[in-house]
Structure formats: C-alpha cells, structure tokens
Design goal:
The structure is a single chain. By secondary structure, this protein is of the alpha+beta class. The chain contains 11 helices and 10 strands. Strands 1-4-5-8 form a 4-stranded mixed β-sheet, covered by helices on one side. It has a 4-stranded antiparallel β-sheet with strand order 2-3-7-6, with no helix packed on it. Strand 9 and strand 10 form a beta hairpin. The protein is globular. Bound molecules: flavin-adenine dinucleotide. Flavin-adenine dinucleotide binds next to strand 1, strand 3 and helix 11.
C-alpha cells in the first residue's frame, strides 16, 4: 500500500514536471512541501518532532526506488532523508532537534550535507574550512563544492576544522543556516546529467555561527561522518541498481518491438545473450542489495558491506545501461529517450559518496587487513 501511494505521488507530482525542472536546473520548493504533506520526508523522525516515527529503513528505500525507477532524481529527497536527518537524529541535542526536524519533515526546510571542497574530496581529512571559536560564536571561513541541494538548502551540515592543528581530530560538524551573514551560494553547477538537481558551491566568509549550532561534540566530526556513511552508500547502490533495472525493462521491451532483418532485435543470439547476462547480474545485485537493506533495518550494516554494495551496484549499473544504449541503436543516443538520460545520470554513482576506488581501498584495508 505504501509503495502504491508513493508511486502515485511520484507519477502525479514529479514525473509530469521533471522535464521542465531539468531545463530550469532546479526543482520548485512546492514539490518539497507536497512530499512533506504526504509524510515522505523524515519518515523515521519521532512523532514529537513531526515525523511518523516509522523507524524502518525499508520506507526510505521504497521512496528512493520509486523515484529512481522513473529517473526522478531532481528533488534531493534522498539527501534529506538519508543524509541530513540521520545526522540530526544521531547527534543533535534536544533543542536542535526541536529547531530543525519539524521543518525538515514538513518540507519547509531543505537540508544539505557539505563535506567536499575544491581541494579535498576523497581525502576528507584535508578540508580547509575553519570555524574558530570566539566567545559565543564560531567564525567560519572556507568553501565547499559539488553540494547537492546546494542552492535550495535552508540548513547545511558543514564539515569544518574547529582545531586546524589536530588533523581529523580537529574536524567538527556545524549547522549553517540560510541568511547568516557571509554564507553565500555560488553557481548552480552545470553537470553531465541529473540536470534538475541543484548542485552548487558554498562560500563562508567570516560567518558568525552561534555556539548552539555544532552537532554533538567538537572534534568528533570525522567519526560522525564515518558512522553515517554506510547509509549514504547503500542508498547510492540502491538508486543505481533500481535505475539499471528500469533501463533493462525498457530495453527488453524495445528489443521485442524493434525489428531488423525481419526479426525482433532481441532474438539475435548476441542480443539474447546480452539480455540474459544483464538479467542475471541484476538479479544477483538485487539479492545482495536486499541483504544490505535488511542489515540496515537492523542497524547492522557495516562500512565494508555498504562499500561493497556501492561500488559493485554502481559499476554494474554503468555497464548495464551502456549495453542498453547500444541495444537501442541511434535512438539510445537521443535525449528524448529515457535510456539516454539514464546513461548520463547514472555515471555519477561511481564518483559520489566516496569514489569506487575509495570503496575498494576501504574493503581491502578493513576487511582484508591489507
Ligand atoms: C553531482 C555531485 C553531487 C555531489 N554531492 C555532494 C554533497 O552533497 N556533499 C558533499 O560533501 N559532496 C558531494 N559530492 C562530492 C563527491 O562526494 C566527491 O566528488 C567525491 O568524493 C570525489 O572527490 P573529488 O571530486 O575531490 O575527487 P578526488 O578525491 O580528487 O579523486 C580523483 C580521482 O582520484 C582517485 N583517488 C583519490 N584518492 C585515491 C586513493 N587513495 N586511492 C585510489 N584512488 C584515489 C579517485 O577515486 C578519483 O578517481 C558530489 C559530487 C558530485 C559530482
């Protein structure tokens, strides 16, 4: 029933407008309010902060799947549900939860997570944004880039150094709010795909952030980020796999309809083998992702298993969608065909949320002891 309701919501409120949003490079705030109204934001947030208190990751997973299967990646709902809110639930104090969660749940507030900088992406310890305590506030200076919901965000969880002499141990997470003097957004970046999603630079110039805005303890930011990354990586894996499944289904239908040399193109042995290989790999991926989803439901998903899901599913999705484009022939290269858009959109997945090389490095170090 929940899937049906979500599918209808996406079909009614997102799909008809997505093409226009892609041209605009951004989605309207209105769709956020509608999602909030439907109870699709912060589903796991306790009722006292306006949520539904449904502490079961499968609801998040399902919402994400319903968006991914139709290529609706403009609204950054996943950033809100699976990145920003989990940090607040895990590390915000009571006053902060009351201040921010109800508005994130209703869609009045849009959240962002700002870790990456022009000179530090994979190497997060190398971030240079600083927030130096000065009485009752911190003075924040620095720059972030590639931030999802970068233009729309009302609050951004910013990874910064409160003690630059300490390396990783000097990193804290501090919430910066829209309207603070010196907090500015840069360009809405032009990307290869995902054109409806606002991805932007953020600038902090002597921003005075009150001492009531850091999450948790000062200096624990790096550990907090490591704690929350498995969920972020799982949702990338799930989005990637779901997009590949959708690509496969549309390609199979195309291969049944399209004829060449007097027969459906799917019946050439080469195409049949390719489709059979893809079906097999997608099914293997689905079984593993379901396993990871259940681990996440039980809050037992390890960083290593999340990394395995992230690199393997995103790698698979790129391979599968590339083959699907090929099976579409020239039409696969036309942006009016959803397969072409999926090809551009999914290319992000091996890169963000920690690159696939970083995932393999993590597995090698932590699982294999290498
Ligand atoms: C569309 C988009 C949205 C994003 N959204 C967000 C967001 O909301 N918040 C946020 O904080 N960030 C976001 N990012 C940033 C993203 O997480 C980073 O781009 C990513 O982590 C890689 O960092 P980098 O771009 O600095 O690449 P680099 O770290 O410079 O890496 C370049 C290459 O070197 C390789 N490499 C680096 N170190 C190693 C190593 N130790 N071993 C082997 N290979 C290595 C990488 O794998 C990669 O191939 C987003 C990025 C994009 C493109």
């Amino acid at each position: 029933m929940f899937r049906d309701a979500v599918r209808q919501f996406v079909a009614r409120e997102v799909v008809p407008y997505h093409g226009q949003w892609e041209k605009d490079g951004i989605v309207p705030r209105d769709v956020w309010l509608k999602a909030g109204n439907m109870g699709l934001l912060g589903m796991d947030v306790p009722e006292e902060y306006g949520g539904l208190g449904m502490e079961d990751f499968r609801y998040n997973a399902l919402f994400l799947e319903e968006c991914a299967r139709v290529g609706a990646n403009g609204p950054g709902f996943g950033v809100q549900n699976d990145l920003v809110i989990p940090y607040l639930l895990a590390f915000a104090n009571e006053e902060q939860k009351q201040r921010w969660l109800p508005k994130l749940v209703s869609g009045e507030y849009i959240g962002a997570l700002a870790m990456t900088e022009p000179n530090a992406g994979s190497d997060l310890q190398g971030i240079r944004t600083t927030a130096i305590r000065n009485g009752d506030h911190y003075v924040m200076n620095g720059q972030k880039t590639f931030i999802s919901n970068g233009i729309l965000n009302d609050i951004a969880i910013v990874a910064c150094k409160t003690d630059p002499s300490q390396g990783a141990k000097g990193i804290s997470l501090i919430v910066v709010e829209r309207g603070m003097a010196g907090y500015e957004r840069g360009r809405n970046l032009e990307k290869v795909g995902r054109h409806a999603q606002d991805t932007a630079e953020l600038f902090f110039r002597d921003v005075h952030v009150p001492v009531s805005n850091p999450l948790g303890e000062e200096g624990k930011g790096f550990a907090y980020m490591m704690h929350n990354l498995p969920q972020e990586r799982l949702v990338i894996a799930l989005g990637s796999l779901t997009a590949a499944e959708a690509a496969f289904e549309m390609t199979l239908a195309y291969c049944r309809e399209r004829t060449a040399f007097g027969q459906p193109i799917g019946t050439f042995q080469h195409s049949r083998f390719k489709l059979a290989e893809m079906k097999t790999e997608l099914q293997v991926g689905r079984v593993y992702i379901d396993h990871c989803i259940m681990l996440q439901v039980e809050k037992k998903l390890s960083a290593e298993e999340a990394a395995m899901a992230k690199w393997w599913c995103s790698d698979l999705a790129c391979r599968v969608i590339d083959r699907c484009v090929q099976l579409h022939g020239g039409y696969g290269y036309m942006l009016e065909y959803p397969i072409a858009k999926l090809y551009l959109d999914v290319r992000l997945d091996p890169i963000h949320g920690g690159t696939n090389e970083i995932m393999k490095d993590l597995i090698g170090r932590r699982m294999l002891g290498l």
